[in-house]
Amino acid sequence: MQFSITVANSSHYQFAEAICTMMAEAAKTRGTGIAQRTPDYIQQKMKEGKAIIAMADNIAVGFCYIESWEGLKYVANSGLIVHPDYRKTGLAKRIKKATFDLSKKKFPNAKLFGITTSMSVMKINSDLGYRPVTFSELTKDENFWKGCMSCTNYDILKRTNKTMCICTGMICDLSNVPEKNIKQNEKKMWEKFTRFITLRKIKIQKKAKQYPKLNKIINNEK
Ligand SMILES: CC(C)(COP(=O)(O)OP(=O)(O)OC[C@H]1O[C@@H](n2cnc3c(N)ncnc32)[C@H](O)[C@@H]1OP(=O)(O)O)[C@@H](O)C(=O)NCCC(=O)NCCS
Fold first, then answer.
1. Does ligand 1 have an atom closer than 6 angstroms to the CB of 78?
2. Nearest CA to ligand 1 atom 16
3. Residue 21 CA, ligand 1 centroid: distance in Å
4. pLDDT tens profile 49-87
């Protein structure tokens, strides 16, 4: 399947509704990780040249947009979505790389960060040069954290005073992107990252006693 992956513009406004529907359906299935956006919001991102769209046969099959926080200090590549029929084909990786390159062009001195529960997103981010961090290294901008309010785990974030949640925080300094695109380096970073995740899991399990809901999530209880 041939995809066109480009910076979205006004010619893509007609796909904003379908993109929102894809996001809403993914949020329903996963329950975490995707801030709900309106078609107007998506169109605004297209207008500003801050979004990447993947098209296949005049159908929008993937999307991701850039948000900035605390002026130009922090940026996030948010709302990554791939149509369920086109997943596991490497499409998300290509969309994320295009959004990463666009962010570097528009915000060369910013810290690019993200929070996610998705292992595939963590793998993509790690390959791009993000490293895992605690939430204290992320933006303090309240408007960013408001995006978490539609997540089913928001109460955990609230109770921990934004110090931890189910998501993993990752960051990449765009002014100093580590040497990448070298397979060996990607592998090393991913191994380092999985070690971090294992240690984090142990830490969360210790804390889980204080937070019964966290305990249930860790143990996959309803
Ligand atoms: C998350 C999502 C965008 C991934 O899309 P995708 O097109 O299937 O992803 P890709 O095919 O590009 O795969 C990404 C990478 O993750 C890896 N991966 C997938 N599952 C993995 C897992 N459980 N552990 C580690 N790596 C994993 C893949 O192997 C691939 O890496 P590689 O190319 O180096 O082998 C897609 O599932 C989606 O739209 N989900 C709903 C919305 C969502 O959850 N968005 C993320 C919000 S943070």
1. no
2. 120
3. 19
4. 999 999 999 999 999 999 999 988 999 999 999 999 999
What is the CB neighbour count within 10 angstroms for residue 15? 22
Domains and CATH numbers, the chain: 4-218 (3.40.630.30)
Q: Phi and psi for 175 in degrees, rounded to 5?
A: -80, -5
213 pLDDT band (50/70/90 cuts)? low
Q: Is 61 in the pocket of ligand 1 (CB under 6 A)?
A: no
What's the CA gap between 54 and 47, in Å, rounded?
A: 16
Query: Is the CB of residue 197 below 6 angstroms from any atom belonging to ligand 1?
Result: no
d(CA 5, CA 12): 12
The pLDDT of residue 28: 83
9: CB partners within 8 A, 6+ apart: 46, 47, 49
Predicted pLDDT of residue 7? 98
Question: Phi first, then psi: what are they for 168, rounded to 5°?
Answer: -105, 135
Q: Are strands 74-82 and 111-116 parallel, antiparallel or unpaired?
A: parallel
pTM over 0.85: yes
Residue 27 in tokens: 């949020």
